[in-house]
Amino acid sequence: MYTICRSKRRRGNMFDFANLGDIVLYVLPKLLAGFLMMLVYIHLSGKGALAPVSAIDQVGNVALGAIIGGTLFNKGETVLGLVAVVGFWAGLLLLLRYFANKHMAVKTVIDGDSIRLMKDGKIVTSNFDKAGLSVRDFLMLLHQRGYRNLDELRNVWFEYNGQMTVVRKGDEATATALVESGEVNEKNLERLDRSREWLEEELKKHRAKLEDIFCAE
To answer: What are the UniProt keywords, alphabetically (predicted)?
Structure first.
């Protein structure tokens, strides 16, 4: 006589979604905790977290969502573990955002600088490698913004968030911050072909101190 034995596959840490008890016991508490953590993070970081303007914001938000999603359906992860990991990652993002807003050098390291692709109607070929763009990519981005010919453009910058700033010939110059939170933006001074000495003279004319200025263009 032969006996047939059926082996049961191990389910590991995965849930049995046919079992309502698994969902109520494991998923819902972590889902609620993750939702509350996201609300706290959005409240502390401001509405900028909903519409990120830099690469670190975008990557950070994607990673934050992946952390929450990855722990929801894993029985080995507890609610406290979820709160700890999400809290650590959100805290790191908030810390980076704080120092980037307070210190220009930190912001430059994290976000990078704008890269000039056209100057006075001429293409700056040496900057295309810095921007990681080919000529085809450059033209595609311009076409998407409604610019058909290079002849109509005066200045083009590739911004640190992947967008492009375009100034046509005959248009007024775009606003450029020369002082941010009491610090001189040397890159923007160079962008306008101005010197630090010129800026200091302008501040003297207005009887303003550099450390007292939040923003000057």
So the answer is: Cell membrane, Membrane, Transmembrane, Transmembrane helix
